[in-house]
Amino acid sequence: MMKNILLLLIVLASQIAFAQSEKVGVTKDGTHFGVMMDSEGAITYDELLTKLESAKEVEDVKVVGKVEGVCQAKGCWMNIVSEDADQEPMFVKFKDYGFFMPKDIAGETVIMRGKAYKEETSVDELRHYAEDNGESKEAIAAIKEPKVELKFMADAVILK
Questions:
Q1: How far apart are CA 129 and CA 102, in angstroms?
Q2: DSSP states of 110-157
Q3: What is the per-residue pLDDT across 126-148, written as a single tens digit (0 to 9) for each?
Q4: In the chain, count of helices (H) and strands (E)?
Q5: For the chain, which domains are there?
Q6: What's the pLDDT at 41?
Q7: What's the distance, CA 136 to chain centroid?
Q8: Of 68, 75, 32, which is closest to residue 150 (Cα–Cα)?
Q9: pLDDT tens profile 96-124
Q10: Residue 140 φ then ψ, to 5°
Q11: What does residue 95 show for φ and ψ, rounded to 5 degrees?
């Protein structure tokens, strides 16, 4: 009986370790989350904004940006800003909730791969994200209008 329990624990531990190794890795580029990728061909946040002026969405793009904030509940989203200019933040989610980011990476640089697009975010969703970010009840209640936001669905992120 004890052997069976021990064997089960070993199998579970190895499966957990294997699942995590598929989602996170470390290379010379940095710490990887999601699908492994390289940083070759990454464009700046400002270059992405220029591309989105003439297109509704940009698919399969790699973008370099600075983390403005991360969901403080789980790390399930982050906001990215330009390294050079004071542009509007881009709201980043992770494909199929396949991975989360560390909650303490504000100010760090990331390279993301995925799809950039603009989309209207409802009042309820904006309030939910404000709550996740630890905003005050007053700030959350002050959200009364939906907002068209720049968004990104990432399948891979490299934390520099």
A1: 16
A2: EEEEEEEEEEEE-HHHHHHHHHHTT--HHHHHT--S-EEEEEEEEEEE
A3: 898 888 878 899 999 999 999 88
A4: 4, 8
A5: 26-159 (2.40.50)
A6: 96
A7: 23
A8: 68
A9: 999 999 999 999 999 999 999 999 989 99
A10: -65, -45
A11: -50, 125
